Amino acid sequence: IDNWISDYIIKVCLTNFFNENSLYVGGYLLLSVATPITNVLLPYYYGEIINDISKNKDIIPNVKKVIYLWIIAQILYATMDKMDSHFEPKIKSYLRSNIVENIMKSYSEHSDDLEIGKMINIIVKIPLILSDLLIQIRTYIIPAIYVLLSSTGYFFYINRTLGMISFAGILLFIIVLCYFAKVSSSNFEITHEDMNTLHETISDILENVNNIYANNTYFKEMEILKNVQEKINKSYRKSHNTLTNIKILFNTIYVTIFSCINAYSYYLYKNNQIEFSDLSSVFVIVLYILNQLENISGELQPLIQNISSLNNAQKFLNELSNSKIMWIFCE
Fold it and tell me: Which residues 6+ apart lie within 8 Å of 147 measured at CB?
């Protein structure tokens, strides 16, 4: 048993899948350039159009560029959605088959040791959670990385100090987010463990209904169930309070950072260090970035819950082999 389970780490299995399906990975990374096109490149040309209008120049060339870029971005987005229809069932099928195959091999001589309920739960849960997590990464994380990197590069192009402000802010943002996300994930893991206890308690009650009535322990069992549920409610509130604090800090940091970028770009414009088109582009890009980060902020809870759910599933696999517990995707 130890051999397959110690090798069957979710992170390793995921790596193997990506190695076998590198075309998907490359395709997603390539198609994700649609986000910086819409969030950085298009705003740049919006600024150029505004500049052309202010100087009574012909706006048609830049308008055509905006239209062409918008069409290209929509094609890339549509292609990515099409890839999802192939990618999601493929990875789910891969994980289910891999888990079942290894369980069958490992328990071929001692099938009585199988914990059927927990095994089925793991087989069903891991592919769904992992697929959902990967879609979240594809939809929110990778586009945000592209946008932040490309916008910072553009800010450096306009003015070195402006680029440094953006880079320092993003670095601070990532450090704070990773630290508090780890704390929040740990809290959600405790909630998952309490939920497992609740399921076991309910299962014991339902499996022993006749004995409970025969021994007149109904109220005692209900009190046990009530205590378990209160413990879950307490850990759930703690998890969500932590997450709420993270989101408040998250929003405060990115609004402060990009307010500073807007203020400094306006200062540069007033001192004739950048043109009006550059100022307009910065303002529009910042609006797109804020929208991107607001989307991530709204997705923080399900994202962290999915990570903690995977950690919880990994702990079950580790308990079978007494192997070292790993923090999925973080260490």
Answer: 35, 36, 39, 40, 288, 289, 292
Structure tokens at 93: 């099928």
Neighbours of 199 (CB within 10 A): 14
In angstroms, rounded to a whole number, what is the distance separating the alpha carbons of residues 318 and 330?
17
What DSSP assignment string belongs to 72-141? HHHHHHHHHHHHHHHHHHHHHHHHHHHHHHHHHHHTSS-GGG--HHHHHHHHHHHHHHHHHHHHHIIIII
What does the pLDDT look like over 103-155, one tens digit per residue?
Answer: 666 665 555 555 666 667 677 777 888 888 888 888 888 888 888 888 888 88
Q: How far is CA 200 from CA 59, 63, 197, 236, 316, in A?
A: 68, 63, 5, 18, 15
Q: HSE (CB half, 13 Å, CA atoms) of 74?
A: 6
Residues 287 and 65: their CA atoms lie apart, in Å, by 21
Instruction: Write the CB contacts of 153 (distance below 8 Å, at least 6 apart in sequence).
Output: 163
DSSP assignment of 196-265 equals: HHHHHHHHHHHHTHHHHHHTT-HHHHHHHHHHHHHHHHHHHHHHHHHHHHHHHHHHHHHHHHHHHHHHHH
Structure tokens at 265: 């770009």
Angle at 314 between CA 310 and CA 315, to 5 degrees: 120
Number of other CB atoms surrounding residue 222 within 10 Å: 12
CB contact at 8 A, 180 and 246 = yes
- In 258-328 the beta strands, taken as DSSP E runs, fall at none
Alpha carbon 53 to chain centroid distance?
41
Give per-residue pLDDT as tens, 200-228. Answer: 778 778 878 888 778 888 888 888 888 88
The token pair that represents 238 in the structure block: 């703690």
Going by the DSSP 8-state scheme, the letter that residue 274 receives in this structure is S
pLDDT, tens digit, for every residue of 273-325? 888 878 888 888 888 888 777 777 777 777 777 777 777 777 766 665 543 33
pTM listed for this prediction: 0.69
User: From CA 204, how far away is CA 200, in angstroms rounded?
Assistant: 6
